[in-house]
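User: Fold this; tokens only.

Assistant: Input:
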Amino acid sequence: MADSTILNLDLQTTGANAGTWGSKTNDNLEKIENAIKGYASVSITGTSQALTVASGGTGDQQSRAILNLTGTLSGSTALTCEANPNWYIIKDATTRAGHALTFGPSGGSAVTLTSGAIHLIYTDGSSAFQIPENLANMALSGTLTVTGDVSFDGGSFTFNQSGAAVDARFEGDTDQNLIITDGSTDRVGMGIAAPNGKLHVRQASATGAQPVIELEQLDQDYAFTNYVGTSATDASKSISSSTATAGGKVGAIRIRVNGTERWIRIYDNAI
């Protein structure tokens, strides 16, 4: 009788296989065991290769739960399984030499494997899916370490939704604190580990030869900044409407306007 579709079990019929029924049943049980916890090493020897299928339990790669891929790729390579529903844990231990390796059902859509990674893959018989990539929701309570690229697409991203005093930090090439959010003080820093204001921007290099902030306004008839606060006629609020000029000049701040250096005078009082 023909093998079963998914695990390639040697199906039995009444009265068949007299004297060999026991060995065939043992082969079937071994294949079921392999489908649950079985391991097979698969050596990639060509650019188009299929998992082996066998009636017995020992020679069948197709029904193994865990596959360890080895070998050196000679070109972009496609490894296929049968076009039946199944799932696999695949460790890609191949030597790539710059070539891509895909895995999927025969005649269907495949997924691209990452060299050195362990993949959890499900196939419905026509397409393969990386299970972590197709989860609707995923909750982690430990530490998540990612060595490749991270892409967020199609939704919002919330960090520290529980409101704990935890920080987020983004490093640059030479700046360890390119951007930092300080959860304990609810502040954001750029170039500084412990920001002193709601937003603290620091150009830390004495030879940086660059401004702390550069504002570029492409809307020709709109302001560069907008200050919103409480106004008073004296110096008691954040904005003063006083037009008095009695305050004494105490210095000036260097700025650049369209690349030319200018100075903004500062006074000891708003009135």
